[in-house]
Amino acid sequence: MDFSTVLIQTMNGLQYGLLLFLIASGLTLIFGIMQIINLAHGALYMVGAYLAFWLTALTGNLFLAILLGLPLAALLGVLIERFLMQALYRRDHLDQVLMTFGMILVIDSLRSIAWGNDVHSVAIPALLEGSIQLTETLEYPVYRLFISAVCGLIALAMYGVLQRTRLGIVIRGGASNREMVQGLGINIRVIYSLVFAAGTALTAFAGMIAAPVSSVYPGMGNQILIIAFVVVVIGGLGSIRGAFLAALLVGLTATWGAVLVPEYAGMAIYLLMAVVLLFKPRGLFA
Amino acid sequence: MRPLPRTIRYLLLALTLLLAAFPLFGESLSGEQHSYHLQQLTHIMILAIVALSLDLLVGVTGMVSLAQAAFFGIAGYSLVLFAPEFEAVNFWLALALCLAVSAAAALLMGLLIIRTSGIFFIMATIAFSQMLYYLFHDSAFAGGSDGIYLFLKPEVAIAGVQLLDLENPRSLFYLVLGSLVLLYLLLRTCLRAPFGRVLLGIKHNEERVRSMGYNPLFYKLAAFVIAGTIAGYAGMLSATQYGFVSPGQVSWQLSAHALVMVILGGMGSLFGPILGAFAFEGLHQLFAGLTPHWELPMGLVVIAMVLLLPRGIAGLLLQLCSARKAKPADDAALSTAVAVNKETSV
Amino acid sequence: MNNYKKIASTLGSAALTLALFGNVQAADPVKVGLLLPYTGTYAALGEAITNGMKMAIEQQGGQLGGRAVEYVSVDSEANPGKAVPNMQKLVDGAKVDVVVGPVHSGVGMGAVKVARDSGVPLIIPNAGFNAATGPLCAPNIFRTSFTSWQTAYPMGQVAADKGYKNIVTVAWRYGFGTESVEGFKEGFEKAGGTVSKEIYVPFPDVEFQSQLTEIAALKPDAVFVFFAGGGAAKFVQDYAAAGLQGKIPLLGSGFLTEGTLAAQGQAAEGVLTTLHYADSLDTEQNRSFRDAYRQQFGKEADIYAVQGFDTGLLLAQSLQQVAGNTEDRNAWIAAMSQAHIASPRGDWSFSKAHNPVQNVYLREVRDGANQVASIAATALADPAPGCKLQ
């Protein structure tokens, strides 16, 4: 393997990692900050992808679709939080597991009724269609670079809001101590709705923006569910920086695993997680 | 763990007797479909054993594991790989092997991950289960992704005398029912013994258990190995019933379904998860028979049950008992039976 | 006198039996069990097979051998772990006369197990795992689709004829993927080529960037791939986005471009695949089949619809021959194994192992459709190693 291939594979790994961070970003809020075990994360990601497909078909433009889809996803998040999750905060965490399991079934069924079971794709916006020549035979699509940039921006924005603003302090405080935040005269219910809606919108956004490279098909949510949890857990709960670095680490492991030990590529990221938890039982950056 | 209210004990006894009588009288009830119902009930009871084993971890000790399918599957694969192709394998040898393999796997996994807790423990169990899944899925030695057959069911004999003919669905049904009842009673007894009290204590307050001079890690590891071995036994029964194992039996989805059965049935009550297994599979059968979009009603019912039955089916039953009698003594029984959930959730 | 009486009474009772039997048969519909995925990733395949099969039976008058038809469907969820209980639900629960299914090979293993044990006829309308009509073949097991080998082997000769010497393969690491690659490799090596590297991707991962980088670095004469559904859509798009389209020819088993062309768009142009069907086959049967399907279901037929349609034809033809008598399984099975199906894919009949002996077409994607370039293999039979029926 020559040096340029090594370089390109490493870049592939980092780029995949950024994509994974995007996929897991909503979960870092809902699970990492609010500590809700949201099994429906994959289903909401799928909803985002189908929204992108549907709204792009209607409007003819992915960016317009995202603009329309984001409020819809946020609204869905508010509704789920208000009517389904709110009743469970004072109960055992496992009731949330059961609730979100039920949600997977309902969402998947509604998806099948509304949009059918076929494989779809979403066109890359004309603006971002080109590609960059890397080697004599290999090109790199601009849209993937665009996704990477978006991921970086989201990571920065999340970090900024949660670590540097008053709202962020309240949110992080509310996650670890409901009563205390409430004692400060802050309406914790609104905060929870807000965070859950933001988490849902982020998850759907990930589905929408990744739709042109991921294709849109039933079952696409199942595939990302576990890996999103892997990213958040390796990073350590509640840490945006942790999730970001963990995503890059997982991306590199999956990519280099496929190159170096293809027979065991499927196991690579789980081995990584097992090793991390063995030495750091609370994640890398807790 | 205190004794159950009398009504519930009678209810469980009646349900068990009804089940036991099914092979004898079921034919007049379900006619042609009798043999199918027999298979289906056997299948559900095997899943109930898995749910029961998981309750020892989730409901009793407070360890949420998604590795039950790993032990279930590895025992099933052990049976199939160990059995010769054209000859029935000796049941006792196979049993010893399957239990040993699942116990060893649980011990090994447990030693590595027992220090983690909460969600990190869940993810650690997923990590090892997924590695095992890919081992079976990606390598050719056990049939790869398509799975592998067991051609002849194990032979249950002592000194050449056949005790049970497992090829006969009725015998298998009774073997599974007997196993389920025995394991339930065994676990209940176990929980009343000092060992069980320590486990319950760990869920309430691990620090206190430590300060009383017990090593919680040892007890958690013991519970993990016991639960894994029981799941392995269920896996062996399942491989025997179907004569077919595939990576699906090792998947985390199967573990998740077992967890859903436990929560649906009512954590920590031991009998709840068994009812949960029947409810979960029953609802699935019911809705799948009605519409191809069975996921919709099924999902809605699950959501309604979470909202309306905070302590699962077992909690509902216990509440009904205490409401009917409205005696303080029964309230005490209720509160101890489900105290575990209350304490951790507030 | 005595003799006469005897004969009369024998005749009488025979007539009575016939009348009773006939009555029962006329009153009872033929029960057709469907073990197909109706939810999840493979739901579209289950739907297409069901549509195709029902359409074929409706075109034959809506009856099978003079009896009405009753369908009992079970959602397989494409879950091998539930394959045996789901199959038992049909065989022991609903007491179906025949099971049609499944789509997924792992489920197929479970279904074949129950079929072998119970003797109920099983007609596989998709799942291509070689074993079903190989080592696990049985008199009551039929397949109206293909074996993984069948759809990949002919591409070996095609690739060699194109002058490719050195090929890299990429596939999901699971039964269908490895069997397809092995089939291709056998054909290609027999024709003098070399497979220089077999790359496998964990199933069902769809991140292909590192494999594409590897291909670009290896610069083989061509690439042979096996993916299906969402993975196929994504691989072909990624292949083009990586700039490999047009530089290194992309070959595949036909599933690469089945049901995914709309999603793949321009990226699929020029891809060569081999399969036992192509939408654009210019035959009378295919045209009328596709018109009827479009009219009835409002969408284009695909390979899965064809396989379902042929399953319907097989049921109609064989039951016609035995006058709707499903009780005499041996006669019915014999009728099925003799069947000649005038299919939209071209005429075919069963091999001794009960897999179609059929043409495999070389298709090229042009203007968003699989255009038939030539017949890659005429009346190709799967060698069915290990099958004792032959």
UniProtKB/TrEMBL annotation, chain A:
Subcellular location(s) per record: Cell inner membrane
One of the Pfam families matching this protein, by short name: BPD_transp_2
Residue stretches spanning the membrane: 13-32, 39-57, 63-85, 97-115, 142-162, 190-210, 267-285
InterPro entries per UniProt: ABC_transp_permease, BCAA_transport_permease
Family annotation (CDD domains): TM_PBP1_LivH_like
Entry's Gene Ontology cellular component terms: plasma membrane
Key words of the record: Amino-acid transport, Cell membrane, Membrane, Transmembrane, Transmembrane helix, Transport
Gene Ontology BP, a term: amino acid transport
Membrane topology: Multi-pass membrane protein
Highest taxon, organism lineage: Bacteria
GO molecular function, one term: transmembrane transporter activity
Record family assignment: Belongs to the binding-protein-dependent transport system permease family. LivHM subfamily.
Protein name, UniProt field: ABC transporter permease
Species in which this protein is naturally found: Pseudomonas taeanensis MS-3
TrEMBL record, chain C:
Alphabetical keyword list: Signal
Keyword Signal appears in the UniProt entry: yes
Source taxon at top rank: Bacteria
Residues covered by the Leucine-binding protein domain: 29-368
Name under which the protein is recorded: ABC transporter permease
CDD domains, sorted: PBP1_RPA0668_benzoate-like
InterPro entries (alphabetical): BCAA_transport, Leu-bd, Peripla_BP_I
Signal sequence residues: 1-26
Homology family: Belongs to the leucine-binding protein family.
A Pfam short name: Peripla_BP_6
